[in-house]
Amino acid sequence: MRCEAEVAAETCTGATVLRGAGVKHSRFLAELRRSKVCFSPFGYGEVCWRDYEAVLSGAVVLKPDMSHVETDPDIFVAWKTYAPVAWDLSDLRDVLDRLLSDTVLRETLASNAFKAVQRWLNSDAFAHRVRSIFVQPDSSFSLS
Questions:
Q1: From CA 76, how far away is CA 69, in angstroms rounded?
Q2: Inside any domain, residue 63
Q3: Is 29 a domain residue?
Q4: In 10 A of CB 19, how many CB atoms?
Q5: What is the DSSP string of 54-111?
Q6: How confident is the model over 35-58, as a mean pLDDT?
Q7: How many CB atoms are closer than 10 A to CB 144?
Q8: Is the pLDDT of residue 12 over 90?
Q9: What residues make up the domain containing 18?
Q10: 23 falls in which pLDDT band (50, 70, 90)?
Q11: How does the average pLDDT of the chain come out, rounded?
């Protein structure tokens, strides 16, 4: 999908498209903080560290539909915490145009995603998620 994503990104005239390798991580994060949208196509899998960096940097994650994936925290709720595009990227230009022209939508998506991560980090959700690894199902152990 990487090649298809590069071809699709080329059609996004009027938007600054940055890609490539060899950029220092600090420079990458600085650029991400200045970005409104972060296109994050599938690579070797659906979820990427870039998705979380984009959320924490305040950019909207624009990525192929993630409705088949369960994550914790769930930052992939279509049109609530990220902007989905078709897997064939046929609507990439339209979705990007919508995001770039609607500041309120963009800020709402970015804020919702950030708050989802923040709520998760401030909770004991991780402990509950991994509890079954350390505690027998019939145990009376309680995290509360």
A1: 8
A2: yes
A3: yes
A4: 10
A5: HHHHTPEEEEE--TT---SS----BTTTBEEE-TT-TTHHHHHHHHHH-HHHHHHHHH
A6: 93
A7: 4
A8: no
A9: 2-126
A10: confident
A11: 87
